[in-house]
Amino acid sequence: MKPLRILITGNMGYVGPGVVRQLRQAFPQAELIGYDLGYFAHCLTGAGALPETHLNRQLFGDLRELPADLFAGVDVVVNLAAISNDPMSFLFEQVTLEVNYRAGIRLARQAKAAGVKHFVFASSCSIYGSASDAPRTEDAEFNPLTAYARSKMLTEQDLQPLAADDFCVSCLRFATACGWSPRLRLDLVLNDFVASAVATGQINILSDGTPWRPLIHVEDMARAIVWAVQRPASHGGAFLAVNVGSTEWNYQVHELAHAVAEAVPGTTVSLNPDAAPDKRSYRVDFGLYRALAPHHQPQRRLADTIAELRDNLLAMNFCDGNFRASQLMRLRVLTALRESQALTPELAWAPPALVAPPQPIEQPALLF
Question: Which of helix, strand or coil describes residue 23?
Fold first, then answer.
C-alpha cells in the first residue's frame, strides 16, 4: 500500500505550520506537498527552522493558476489558502471572493477529476455573523457580515454537490484562531490582547466588550484536520460541514481581556461603552464535532494559551507598542507589498515595472 500523498494549499501562513507538523507526526510515511503564493513566507517568529522542513516538497504558486500536474498521485487535499480575515476582505473584496471562493471551487473540481479521495476545507464560524445569544448549531441560519465570511459560505454551498462516496468533503467551521505559531499573527483578538498587554500594559477595547467570540488554538485546528484527512464518508456523510472548537471556549471579548490582564500583572483594561455595536457576535455549539471526533477534541486551555503567547513574546524581547503597524499584522504585509509594487492590485506577484503606481490605501478599523 503506497503512502498517502497530501497536498496542503496555503501552508505558509499562520495555521499551516502546525498542520504540516501534525500531519507529519500522524502520517510519518506520507508525502506532504505544500503549495503557497508566499505572501507571508518571511513572517517568521521564534522559529528555529523553516516549518516547511517537515514537507517533502514546497511548491510556490497562485491558487488561481493551478499547474496541470499538481494533483498527480494526490490522495488528500487540505485547502487552507485564503485572503484570511475581515480587514483584508474589506480592502480586497473582489480578490477575496476570487481566491477564497472561485479558485477554491476550481481546486476542488480539479482534485475530484484527478481522483483525489478526500477534500478538507478550512471554513469558519464567521458565516453565522450577527446572532442571538443561543449557540449556533450547524443548521443555524447564515448571516455573513464580511466578504471573508461570505466567501466561506459560498464555498461550502458549492462544495456540497461535488461530494460523493469517492470524494469525501469535510468543511471545518473553525472558531477564531489563537495561540503561538512560527508565523504569528497579532490581528486576532486574543493574540492582540496579549501583545498589547506585554508591550504597553494596556488593553483598549474599541467596543463595549460584550460581543461573543468562540476561540480555538491553532494546534487544535491542526488536530481537527488530521481527523478530517482520514474521515470515511460513512462517518458524517460524503459531505460534512461541522463546527470545530470547544463549547468552553465561547467567550465575550471583555472576558478575554480580563483573563489576559490577570496573566500579565499591571495590565489595565478599558472599554468603549459609547461605541457602535459590533455586529460580529455569535456563540457556537460544538456538540456534533464532539460526537464525531471524540479522540481529536481540543486540548489547549485559555490560561495556557495566554501564558504561551506571553512567554514567547517576552522571549522575543517584544516591546513594540505600535505592533498594529508591523509585519505581524497580515493586512500590513499585503499593503506594504502593494505599495512597493511587488504585488498587482489583484494581489498577484509581478515585476515592479508592470504594476501601476499604487493608490493610497485606507486601513479599516479593527474592532475587538
Answer: helix
Q: For residue 333, what is its C-alpha cell?
A: 504585509
> What is the pLDDT at residue 85?
77
Task: Give a yes or no: residue 162 inside a domain.
Answer: yes
Query: What does the chain come to in residues?
Result: 368
On whether the CB atoms of residues 213 and 279 are closer than 8 A, the answer is no
In angstroms, the first-to-last Cα distance of the chain is: 50
Q: How many domains does the chain have?
A: 1
Q: Kindly report, residue by residue over 176-219, the tens digit of the pLDDT.
A: 999 999 999 999 999 999 999 999 999 999 888 999 999 999 99
The identity of residue 84, as a single letter, is S
Q: What is the CATH number of the domain that holds 69?
A: 3.40.50.720
What type of residue is 332?
R
Q: How far is CA 225 from CA 59, 96, 98, 275, in A?
A: 21, 23, 24, 37
b (16+ CB within 10 A) / e for 225-262:
bbbbbebebeebebbbbbbbbbbebbbbbbebbbbbbe
- Residue 353: the pLDDT is 46
The CA–CA distances, whole Å, from 121 to 50, 52, 155, 283 equal 24, 20, 9, 21
Is residue 71 included in any domain, yes or no? yes
Of the candidates 262, 78, 300, the residue with the CA atom closest to the CA atom of residue 177: 300
Are 139 and 113 in contact by the 8 Å Cβ rule? The answer is no
**Residue 262: enclosing H or E segment and its boundaries?**
helix 253-263
Element at 191 (helix H, strand E): helix 189-200
Residue 91 structural domain: 5-183+215-244
Is 115 domain-assigned?
Answer: yes
- Cβ(77)–Cβ(116) under 8 Å? yes
Beta carbons of 112 and 160 less than 8 angstroms apart: no
* Residue 276 belongs to some domain of the structure: no
